[in-house]
Automatic annotation (TrEMBL):
Lineage: Bacteria, Pseudomonadati, Pseudomonadota, Alphaproteobacteria, Hyphomicrobiales
Similarity comment: family membership: Belongs to the FliQ/MopD/SpaQ family.
Pfam families: Bac_export_3
Topology in membrane: Multi-pass membrane protein
Biological source species: Alsobacter metallidurans
Record protein name field: Flagellar biosynthetic protein FliQ
NCBIfam families, per database record: fliQ, PRK06010.1
Amino acid sequence: MTGPEVLDVARDGIFTFLKVASPLMLIALAVGVVISLIQALTQIQEQTLVAVPKIIVLGLAMILLLPFMGDALAGYMTRVASRIATGG
């Protein structure tokens, strides 16, 4: 495998990682901002208050997004396997 081919596989892997992880990260960010806003408005400064809603929402989001994430990862594996089968 030449240098540009390795870079193509790495770039494809990074893009797949971002495509799989970014929806969950954005959901976690939105939940964190909403909970922080509620904490600021009610003046409740409990640090553990953020954890429970985030865990629940991220669990539900993972269940809903699992087909998309699996498809993206399977597509990446197919592309890598085809590169391996063709010899580069």
